[in-house]
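Researcher: We are triaging several targets before committing to wet-lab work. For this one, the compound of interest is S-adenosylmethionine. I'm pasting the protein sequence and the ligand SMILES. What I need is the predicted three-dimensional arrangement of the protein with the ligand bound, expressed as structure tokens, so it can go straight into our comparison scripts without reformatting.
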Amino acid sequence: MEQDDPDEALTELRERRLGALELLQVAAGSGLVAYAVWALLLQPGFRRVPLRLQVPYVGASVRQVEHVLSLLKGRSGKLVDLGSGDGRIVLAAHKCGLRPAVGYELNPWLVGLARLYAWRAGCAGSVSYHREDLWKVSLRDCYNVSVFLAPSVVGLGFPSPGYPSICDGPAGAGRGQPCSTLPTPPSYSLPQLPLLESKLQVELPEGARVVSGRFPLPTWQPVAVVGEGLDRVWAYDIRNGGPAGQAVPAPSSTSVPRAPDPQAG
Ligand SMILES: C[S@@+](CC[C@H](N)C(=O)[O-])C[C@H]1O[C@@H](n2cnc3c(N)ncnc32)[C@H](O)[C@@H]1O
């Protein structure tokens, strides 16, 4: 249909353009709100962490926590949850006798929530939660470590530029420290290993156990596996300065299938 009155046509055109502009404003506004929620609530404290090292919060399920505890059953010594979220794994491990139980978490809201839950459970003075970057804390005295992270982080191969890589070497020569804290660039590192495995291998003491939820460590051989699907949890032991390669069945766990022996008839 043709428009007879040019004034009317102009007004209609203006209204239409205004509509498109409004749409654009709404889109920009909601993008801003989404970014603000992400930056202030979900991922605060992550500004200095490279994007590919960032992991969103997804709390462990009741089943996953049970599996972690079953793989740490009978053990003692310090427990650390790397990326402790609302502290549920730390609290549960403390109740099972692992002392001290410590959580490292970058999101201050989650650190606060974890402290609140610990206080409500009457454990305020016995567990601790620190707002710290898991890549920058030392694990030298940790005999029990739990990691519920993302595959991008667990399997990450190379350190990001400007971000600490972990240093191997004799004690006192920066072993286990972020390389960036050392006076000279170190010539020793474990570049062949994904970053998380490298950190764990260099820093953990003999006899330590790592439990990894949802995603396995890419190159280590687990000593035990519990659960199915997303509830699956893998256990790895540190023996002779590295991950134990032998599959040893743990109580109430699925033993890891071993490769067929080529010598066997
Ligand atoms: C998948 S959630 C697991 C939370 C908790 N471990 C659980 O299982 O209930 C991962 C957590 O790691 C935290 N996180 C990610 N990168 C971190 C870093 N570099 N340092 C400390 N915490 C980190 C996130 O904020 C998030 O809360």
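Researcher: Any quick observations?
Model: Strands lie at 79-82, 101-104, 127-130, 144-147, 209-213, 224-226, 233-239, 242-243.
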